[in-house]
Amino acid sequence: MKADLILYNGSIHTVDRDNPAATAVAIKDGKFVAVGDDISVMKMAGEGTTLIDLKRRRTIPGLNDSHTHLIRGGLNFNLELRWDGVPSLADAMRMLKEQVARTPSPQWVRVVGGWSEFQFAEKRMPTLDEINAAAPDTPVFILHLYDRALLNRAALRAVGYTKDTPDPPGGKIQRDAGGEPTGLLLATPNAMILYSTLAKGPKLSYEYQVNSSRHFMREMNRFGITSVIDAGGGYQNFPDDYKVIDELHKQGQLTVRIAYNLFTQRPKHEEEDFDSWIKSVKVYQGDDMYRHNGAGEMLVFSAADFESFVQPRPDLPAVMEEELERVVRLLVSNRWPFRLHATYNESITRFLNVFEKVNRDIPFQGLPWIFDHAETIDEKNIERVKALGGGIAIQSRMAYQGEYFTDRYGEAAAAHTPPVKRMLEMGVPVGAGSDATRVSSYNPWVGLYWLSAGRTVGGLQLYPDQQRLSRETALELYTRGSAWFSNEQQKKGAIKVGMLADLTVLDSDYFTVTEEEIKGIEADLTIVDGRIVYAKGDFNQWAPPPIPILPDWSPTAIYNGYHPGSNKLGAKTYKFAEKAPVNDISAMVHQCIGNCGVHGHEHDKARRSDVPVNNYTAFWGALGCSCFAF
């Protein structure tokens, strides 16, 4: 047998305990057929075999986000201005103002999650006055975690909020002395006010949603993600909002494997939803690229313990147990796997009471089920999860909300939130993920940094040494660990003969870079199903053809999602909408992002200083490179 593709001369961390390291792999028909040293693997080379020299680069299995929202995120990616990783509020507001100038009416400028004010040098959010000054006429919606949204006056007009608009249950519209909305929406703690307001904005056309979804998957490939489990989400209706992904799958254009859970959208009608889906959707229907994965993360609305750590812990209503029991009985009796959003230990105790009651009548007997988040779960409840055969999917939400949690509950509580090490010690399956895009960023390296360094994106040390994971263990949670959560642990999560051929070659060595440098790691080469889906740098010759960005005014065309973008993707020709000013100073002058190719150091040092490098009409900014200030 001759291989389709051989990668050799690498430094391969396989996450296979029986064969932990290798220098070469051979791939045939989308699976690994050899993993070992160069000499032995090269024996599988033939006339039609593609050979790629890895140049000793660190290579790992493809990363697997066990809880994200790719399907919903893909429909909107090209609409959204991402502040993920932006180092200063000054940079963020510059990006906002530039995008306002490009965005045609009646579209909005949206910043939807993936950032925290603590990542900014200024350690604060923008004010409503600053947002209104940057965008006097174009609607702007800025979502901050699940605690608030900031709307400018144009957005308030677009959504129709006036002094007569009532506050929804669990939400608050902040008002001025005259009773008029200021533009600040608060989840107190119900985040539905944030969801429902965002849903009022214009959507992309179907054609553009297809394009947007492809770009979002490409962005995930940029960071080495090859698989995700999609946890549904608010305003994500099945099957209507899945048509784009269905089409891309049929056309062979998925570049990320997707296992999807079904999320009920109708309060008080949840049992009807799941009964209907059970009759029309077969468990695990699909294939290795796109398949069903069960129910959740919303099973019943009364069980939603919203995770705004700015607000006190919510008390779930008394009716929750009865409603949850009906749905769980339905799912277990039909052998449907399920997952449930569960932030607080107090909620988890009540959920487990329901599960144990159902289990006495209808044994779970190995049926996979999941708690998502579980930030404050205690040891007793971890033991109860294990006894019922469940797993816990943890996400990097504390990397973005750790400061808020610490302020409310104290450093001692934050030091083991969530208690990942104890979960692993007690033998409970644990998978890592992000909960992107509306809370955390989709960038998995922020999550790996959080788990191993124990710090937030703002630098707060959450976990002492004894609570931090080794880099090896953290990586296992993002690979082999996450595979359990879609019942695919025998198929993926390691570079091993017989497993699906998903891997990524990194631009820096995860195991040797400094802790702070972990956050900046990207892929130089990503392979899914034995197919190259992303390549840059030394592997640029293998890159798939570029995909045009639609619409042409999309923020994706300029900022490429996670910051920094354009400097790592090569030269681009930008096409601006007619609304864009011809002499867009900041777009034309300040093109150097991240490391300076001329002077060889990080521009962040300049941005975080008091030198006015972001004033592009003044001396330092006009030079086009902030390093000139030093």
TrEMBL record:
Residues annotated as domain Amidohydrolase: 51-534
InterPro entries linked: Amidohydro_3 (IPR013108), Metal-dep_hydrolase_composite (IPR011059), Metal_Hydrolase (IPR032466), YtcJ-like (IPR033932)
| Top-level division of the source organism's lineage | Bacteria
| Positions in coiled-coil regions | none
Any idea what this protein is called?
A: Amidohydrolase
Tell me which species this is from. Answer: Chitinophaga filiformis
* Organism lineage string: Bacteria, Pseudomonadati, Bacteroidota, Chitinophagia, Chitinophagales
